[in-house]
């Protein structure tokens, strides 16, 4: 059972994991160095622990203790009880959901292990916005995608903003990073997937047509703004487009992923 420890000093070193959560570069360095990530909000904290991630500590305002009492009962990590004002001074923002947890990261599985039983996967190339990555995971979980595979330069799915937007889906959808960016799509094709590159290119076919009758499909999505690189565009098995109207040429990558996942789920 977690020990409840009241903390009143914002400089208390026991709160170091939660300091300056809005400083993205500082957090990247700290979380990588310490092997941790932050979950925010009752639902997300619960899903992280239920997803098998071991807690380093919790930070909660008193009014959130009852709602997460069962989670605390199952953990040996300390729970630092703070005022909402102190939480804001430490983190740099108003923690309106009142609960935070610092959790240990786990080693990522191999690409082959993630793909072994998968029928539909999403592959992201250099999607760098944490909100978009989180939204992709939420859509993947909601629409029956079996796994998400990330190129090396993609944003961290376990960064606090990604986790929050995903509503904890990063804990339930299997995912990993690619080691080999250059030959990633040919390797997926060799593994039995039809790689479908989403693009507004003139030779793209409607996404419904691209996935129809396919057994295993990898939906390949490009970075914000520029889309897929030429290498990934030319090495994909097929190019697909979500037909647009009213003069709009494309959707945000998170929205496009949701549409493509919905279509692929019904192929």
Helix and strand arrangement:
Blueprint: E1 4-6, H1 24-34, E2 36-40, H2 42-50, E3 55-60, H3 69-73, E4 79-81, H4 84-91, E5 99-104, H5 111-115, E6 120-124, H6 130-142, E7 147-150, H7 160-165, E8 175-177, H8 184-190, E9 194-198, E10 205-206, H9 207-211, E11 217-221, H10 230-235, E12 238-241, H11 253-265
Parallel strand pairs: 1-4, 3-4, 6-7, 6-11, 7-8, 9-11, 9-12, 10-12
Antiparallel strand pairs: 2-5, 3-5
Poorly predicted tracts of residues: none
- Total of DSSP H or I helical runs spanning 4+ residues: 11
The helix content is 25-40%
| N-to-C order of helices and strands | EHEHEHEHEHEHEHEHEEHEHEH
How far apart the termini lie comes to 47 Å
The main sheet orders its strands as: 8-7-6-11-9-12-10
State the major sheet.
7 strands, parallel
Rg value = 20 Å
Total number of β-strand segments? 12
Kindly report the oligomeric state of this protein.
single chain
The gross shape turns out to be: elongated
The pLDDT mean sits at: 95
Percentage of residues in strands: 15-25%
Question: Structural class from helices and strands?
Answer: alpha/beta
